[in-house]
């Protein structure tokens, strides 16, 4: 039993007293003597004690004073009348302020122990020679001395000045808080061009919103690569949307006591930028757009409507595309604005340089260790053939053979050819599909009641149709998704796939559901095509990496897995190894559970009206000779070792503060043991 688990306060300050003072001073058994919000009546006055510690002789009233509520003249007078009334009833009154608990924790613990020691019942719970850790969460805004961009001294306070006073980073994930502190240190030193390398699933959207609120003075511009991510940021900043980042994070609001920022969301497909006035843009605190709306700075686009001083912070999501000309024009136009470039991977297929200073890095293995990403299980079919063959079929019936990965990558640069590629032999696809079928069955059991989905990536439209047909033959209800479909057909197909009540278990997509697409129930990803770019490959895998947050799965987070099923001849092993070691992730600095592989049993196939198959196939599938290898991208032992490394690093940082503030510190091992036992 831990005191922090059995005694809860009604405010942050009360919780801090329990965690940092009482827990250090006494063992958990004292909980039976502690009452929160204890009522006391003195004549016609009624009081509530923050905490009463009742012993055999003493009644100790603990009063906690936050400066905001005890700094006025009226409060000064009231507090003394109240304390005198309590003293008249025989209470021993101890008062602890917010600043005392935060800045002089050891003295607070010593004062509490001195009083409790005079009561035999309470004294029996005191801890001899206590280890008193310095609080690490006492400041609602751990950034402390966060600074805005340089501004005229006579300039009046504005919206972002208020936000910086109220910003509460406790609702953010630990990795997001660490990134915010790293950014604050970087910008405070005068840096302008920061990059955060964050694994898929780490929460780049929440970090982008928090950074926009913390590091902006006048106006922030958030630039995304397309409509999907633009919509994600629009939702995050919309106070009327469930799941917004401003107020509805699981641990509480990000900006309590503040209005939401005035946000203008622009999309060249929905509302032409030429129809938006400069006055509308200048009235906004936050502008969200995609790079299509930027323009050249001459006329029509965003850069033509805003001057160089109108934006002082630029946040770029999926910043691996920031080497593009449109982004470079953006940075040149707002040359003095701070920048935050966020991406899971900064490598590009075209080799263009992306310049930025990496101030924070959060790797995939860290995201897995912290429970934000699924464990990644690789299932590789290794055929006993030399090379895979593909075929182009032209409208006049002419056929063209494509042999091997390199030839296929070359063809994939030609959109005319791409749509007509099919696999000459379907046996490899059948073999891969058998693995996919068993992976989905395994996931259906592990994730129940959530329905797992599979996402395929094909070469072209004919290839996608070929894969979808074979998937349905294996009992996987599957459809295709490509840009030649109408908007209504795309929306209907996505609804059938994404909704829990939908009837599609898989989709074969052609560069549709890429960066920013977020559907955590995707638990099997199947690249049925080669990737020349590691970044593009990582983005595809990222669609299934996020953990599924569902009440029924809360105790099964460690078992959530992403199965990556691939054909060995597609040459993806190098990309997987790069992801394993994560050594190809940076921009250039500006300064220089096991299951078998038995064959799928035959059964009857039931067809729906849409043509999707349900159940097992009753056809005999020719099996290509080959072997199936499976392994975790980061095995369990490595994830646990990485978690231990990061935990011990955090302990070392806290121990250094403890040693600096304690005349006779205990050994590091004792410190770690106490903090683990008392705080978890």
UniProtKB/TrEMBL annotation:
**Swiss-Prot/TrEMBL keywords:** ATP-binding, Helicase, Hydrolase, Nucleotide-binding
Indicate whether ATP-binding appears among the record's keywords.
yes
Q: Which SUPFAM superfamilies match?
A: P-loop containing nucleoside triphosphate hydrolases, Restriction endonuclease-like
Entry keyword Nuclease: no
- What GO molecular-function term can you cite, just one? helicase activity
Ranges for domain Helicase ATP-binding: 185-364
Please give the name of this protein. Answer: DEAD/DEAH box helicase family protein
Instruction: Give the source species.
Output: Actinoallomurus acaciae
